[in-house]
Amino acid sequence: MRACPPRAVLAMCRRATIARPLVSLILALACALLASAQASDNAVNQVAQRMYCPVCENIPLDECLTAACQEWKEEIRSQLAAGKTDQAIIDSFVARFGDHVVGVPVDPLLRALTIIMPLLATALALGVGALTFRRFAAGKTQTAPSADRARSEAAYRQQLEADVRARR
Q1: How far, in Å, CA of 35 to CA of 23, rounded?
Q2: Alpha-carbon distance 46 to 86, whole Å?
Q3: Taking phi first (over 0 means left), then psi (-120 to 50 degrees means alpha), and beta for anything else, what does residue 135 get?
Q4: b/e for 97-123, b at 16 or more Cβ within 10 A?
Q5: Is the separation of the CB atoms in 43 and 81 below 8 Å?
Q6: What are 58-93's pLDDT values in tens digits?
Q7: In sequence order, what E strands does the chain have?
Q8: 85 vs 82: CA distance, rounded Å
């Protein structure tokens, strides 16, 4: 075996001590970039979950793969990078494209109407049903004819019999 000269060994050790931290630094930066990209994707999806596709019907923006949705997601990413809040981004999309972006009315009056109107319609239907049932039940309880009605039926029958006898 041939022994390495001491200077060559020292040079290799110096290169290794410089290279290892440099490689470690590069790997750490790469991991940080990947983590920030993943965090960015998570933030975009968090905003996109609250919005709907402009092309497809009733499909959340984070699930849709159309070109329009991809453009919107990139726009969300750029607005997040600019420091806008989630609600500010959604508000800007609603201002440009309308209420259908979020799937629910943003106006408080419209939101209240969407909750109150079905309740009022249900209450009205129950009220009409109760009144109809009460009228129906009230009609069933009067099974015995009143005295006036019995007299008028008897008088009608007598008149009818008299007319039939007169015709014979």
Answers
A1: 18
A2: 8
A3: alpha
A4: eeeebbeeeeeeeeeeeeeeeeeeeee
A5: no
A6: 788 888 888 888 898 889 988 888 888 888 998 988
A7: none
A8: 9
* pTM score, whole prediction: 0.44
SS3 105: coil
What is the residue whose two structure tokens read 């590069």? 26
Written as one letter, the residue type at 140 is K
- How far apart CA 100 and CA 147 sit, in angstroms, is 67
Instruction: Write phi, then psi, for 61 (nearest 5 degrees).
Output: -60, -35
* SS3 state at 60: strand
- Residue 148 phi, psi dihedral angles, 5° rounding: -65, -40
Q: Token pair for residue 114?
A: 């969407």
Residue 4 is given by DSSP the state P
